[in-house]
TrEMBL record:
This is Transposase IS204/IS1001/IS1096/IS1165 family protein. InterPro entries: Transpos_ISL3 (IPR047951), Transposase_Znf (IPR029261). Coiled coil: none annotated. PANTHER family: TRANSPOSASE FOR INSERTION SEQUENCE ELEMENT IS1557. It comes from Alkalibacterium olivapovliticus. It comes from the Bacteria. Residues 36-78 form the Transposase IS204/IS1001/IS1096/IS1165 zinc-finger domain.
């Protein structure tokens, strides 16, 4: 499991896992002591609060994967920054996303070759819990890319 988590993001550390209802739930945590503010770049180590976050990843052995973690909110040390707090960010997942970037790529590779309804049926069988509107939104975002 350690290697799987390192592939997602080198700043993540494996904590534990469980298997229920054909889904692997993997709990991870951040190893970073300091995090740069995404708005001004000032590095901070002052944790303001924590909040739970979960997101889906590519399947393991045909079983869905959900990753859980506590995201840390930091206080920005820069008095001139417009944002007093900011959330820790990771390479593997976009801000506010519920799926890893590599899962979204897999969903797109399936959805491009068939209708969104057929894609939902294929993806729900063993890849991820995803709806038709999500697939349509991902396809729309992909078309808007330059």
């Amino acid at each position: 499991m350690y290697e799987l988590i390192q592939v997602l993001d080198p700043c993540l550390e494996y904590e534990s896992h469980s298997f229920t209802n054909h889904t692997f739930t993997i709990t991870v945590s951040s190893t970073r002591l300091e995090v740069p503010c995404p708005y001004c770049g000032q590095v901070s180590s002052r944790v303001h609060s924590l909040y739970p976050r979960k997101f889906q990843d590519l399947p393991i052995q045909g079983h869905k994967v959900q990753i859980k973690m506590q995201i840390r909110k930091f206080l920005c040390k820069n008095p001139e920054c417009d944002h007093k707090t900011f959330s820790e960010r990771f390479e593997c997942i976009a801000e506010k996303a519920t799926r890893t970037k590599r899962l979204e790529e897999e969903v797109l590779s399936i959805a491009i070759h068939c209708s969104s309804i057929t894609a939902v049926k294929l993806i729900r069988k063993g890849t991820a819990n995803i709806g038709k509107s999500t697939i349509c939104n991902l396809l729309h975002k992909e078309r808007l890319k330059p």
